[in-house]
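Fresh eyes needed here. Kindly weigh in on this sequence plus structure tokens:
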Amino acid sequence: MSTPEPAQAPTLAERIKAAPVTFAILVINLAWFLWAQKQGSTTHVDILLRYGAVEAVHVWSGEYWRLASHMFLHIGWIHLLWNAYAGFSVCANVERAIGPRSFLITYLVSGIAGGCATVITYYEATSAGASGAMFGMIGALLALKRRELGNFKDFFQDPGTRSTLGSAGVWLLIGTQVNFNNRAHIGGLVAGALAAWAITSPRRRVLGPIVALGFVSLLVASIKPGWTPRGRERTELRSWGARYLFGLHEITPNRARGERFAHKACDAGDEDACNDLKYEERP
């Protein structure tokens, strides 16, 4: 009786062929990080904001693109390498399960939803990273496993499900202690699960538009059309305006953005912002 030969590990080319979008995202993340890092440290708020990080006041002031761009930028080498290491296999598994096109849609929806959750709940920090999208892939795997098993009893009794839920819970718990952006994690997790569930459903022609409508509603809520800053939000807007106008707190001066922020705060009744504009206009 002959002994079967051990299966050979797939080559790099075979892995890329099996999950091409995952590899493309990995390359984009690395390239974007290196470009930003070349201009300065990606642990510095100024560099992060210049290259796409998400921050509530900036988004509400019209920089809506940050809801998407933040997921391709990372805060330092450790953040980048950890997300690449921890997220690669999860992303590749989802892509192989639902196909490149559906995977890309689910990934982008998850990452953007993480940005929306960050802004809607007014996370008072500048945030970047693919973690929201990565948690979305965890949500997608859970949705796929639930569909495969057919009911919640078998789903929660499944060892793989328990392991995945346990790992996600541990990271969320750690996030409460070390200032991870759990808002993005939870938003991405939920969005990824819903997107994968709708995409793989036999009733996707019905569920797809419902999930899409929910996603659009989330976008609208996060960008606050016609936003008029009040209270703490107005103070924060004026503060950012001053930083860009005068280069405060090591922020690179950006006159156009600074004037836009200051004008909006001034129009909302912030006298300090009005004074900043008058001072900036002095010869």
Summary: The chain is about 75% helix and 0% strand. Residues 12-223 form a domain with the Rhomboid-like fold fold (CATH 1.20.1540.10). The longest helix spans residues 76-98.
